[in-house]
Amino acid sequence: MKKIILSILAFSMFAVSCEDFIEKEERGTQTLDNYFQTAQECEKYTNELTQRLLLSKDWYTLLAPRITNEMATDDAWMGNTGQDNSAHRPCSQYIVTPDNMGDMNSIYTAHYYTIQSANIGLEKMVNSPITDAQKNQYMGESLFVRAYCYYELVNLFGAVPLYTKSLGTGDLKLQRSPATEVYAQIEADLKESAAKLEGIPVARNGRINKWAAYALLARVTLFQEKWADAKLYSNKVITEGPYSLEENFLDIWNVNNHNGKESILEAQSSSVQNEALGSMLPTLSGARGEDKKNFPSNDAKDVIDGWGWCMPTSDLENAYLSENDVIRRRSTITKWGEAAYGDEVLNPTHKFSLNDNKSGRICRKYYIPIATRRTLDKKDGHLPLNVPLIRLAEMYLTRAEASYHTSGDALADINIIRDRVDLEPKTGISGPTLLKQIYKERRLELAFEGLRLFDIRREKDPTTGKRVIETLMGPNGTFVKYNLSSTDPYETTNTKEAQDKGINFDPAKHLLWPIPQIERDLSGGVITQNPNY
User: Fold this and answer.
1) pLDDT of 368-378, one tens digit each?
2) Which of 527, 529, 533 is nearest to 509 (CA)?
3) What is 39-243+511-523's CATH topology?
4) Domain spans of the chain?
5) Distance, CA of 13 to chain centre
């Protein structure tokens, strides 16, 4: 399950590690010298890069650490109290050390495999005997993949080794580059990606296009507090891109609405029964301990016995309740015994094992409807749930936050998002109150979509100037205090996961994860460690 090199990428890494030593011509064998000679070869290589970035069908390499990041926030518990939690516990409970990082090791390693492979492809494709249009497409997509890998690495680990050329065995010990340099490379790659993908048709489901590059530019410039740039790129996607908000919020994660009109980039999935191409997310984070007797049909075909990781907190539910936000709450959280939103007839009282579930809640965004379950003879590895990575609503919220710091109508943008879920517009708020509302709308809109940890690490409380995560976590954090005084009937009766979630957070070190010790060892100590680890 933990294998992290796929076909072409494995070939790439092997070829690069051996090219310093192999000089003998091998006839009839594919090497780096005779590959990339056709558009088909270039496309296959680029497709493998994109798959390597998304990996929706692999539960461990990227999905698990991304889910662990959610568990390190106020949105999610680990949740599963019936199985070994060693993969998730170090980061989610802030007891992580360089020698004990759980699944966070794998995302570091996997992304560098992908970066190395992207570098190889970019070097080779520039000289490929294919048309300029084909070359631009495959190189533009590869540049985006490299940028996205570095985007996650810099947000998880801070300064990381930065390289844009393929490495041989003699130059594998690179020092860390400052985060500012990593971000500069991300921006450069995305701008070049957008330029190369200009004119490439957008309606190519699962493929990267220029709007994905501009949208990621909006995100990374926001994260750097480059407010004018964040506003520029988010506005460009909103006003020039071919996207529009879904009228029904639930349709964003609908198994029958893959690559919907709001989606800028999605990890693809398929229920094809003779291939394991489905997303593992509904299994990894699905309800644990479902039983056919709890469904009206009393039919085992209706059951997907999930693993139960990453369960919503009552604190997140309370955030929805405080806004009377029924649609986004029910689209994001299903509480034990409640009807699954949008699936009320076939699942009117969704029940699962409370003994194995910390919060008595599951993430509705990751849910597979009963009608879809019934069409599948094979479920695990065949679940057809695409995973949105970037969507249009984020661009409105990015523009709102950038407008707050520059000039513009931030209220108008958050009210567009609120109107979609039938909430009254916010009026007459400004200053710190407005900024806190923007933060809150990001939480309610984008919960469980991979942004919460990065957001609370970067966002600053406008009253105290502290990072938001510092106000939530630690012995005096509001989220920790809430949990310790909570009377929630589910969370407080299952104490197999500690109720003091977040109490170990230390702002002197936990704004970043540590560099894996194994990577430092492999570098001979050239790679330094993050502070206080």
Assistant:
1) 999 999 999 99
2) 533
3) 1.25.40
4) 39-243+511-523, 269-385
5) 25
Three-state SS letters, 211-264:
HHHHHHHHHHHHHCCCHHHHHHHHHHHHHHCCCCCCCCHHHHHCCCCCCCCCEE
Q: For the whole prediction, is pTM greater than 0.90?
A: yes
CA atoms within 13 A on the CB side of 211: 28
Quote the strand ranges of 32-171, DSSP E: 76-77, 160-161
Give every CB contact of residue 385 below 8 A, 6+ residues apart in sequence: 253, 255, 269, 278, 279, 281, 282, 366, 368
Nearest to 317 by CA among 331, 304, 307, 305: 331
Residues 6 or more apart whose Cβ sits within 8 Å of residue 463 = 432
H or E stretch covering 434: helix 431-446
* Contact (Cβ atoms closer than 8 angstroms) between residue 87 and residue 465: no
**Residue whose C-alpha is closest to residue 169's, from 16, 8, 10, 11:** 16
Q: What is the pLDDT of residues 105-153, one digit of tens each?
A: 999 999 999 999 999 999 999 999 999 999 999 999 999 999 999 999 9
| Burial (0-12, 13-18, 19+ Cβ within 10 Å), 440 | middle
Determine the Cα–Cα distance for residues 299 and 367; give it in Å rounded to an integer.
18
3-state helix vs strand vs coil in the chain, percent to 5 = 45, 5, 50
Taking the C-alpha atoms of residue 311 and residue 333, their distance in angstroms, rounded to an integer, is: 9
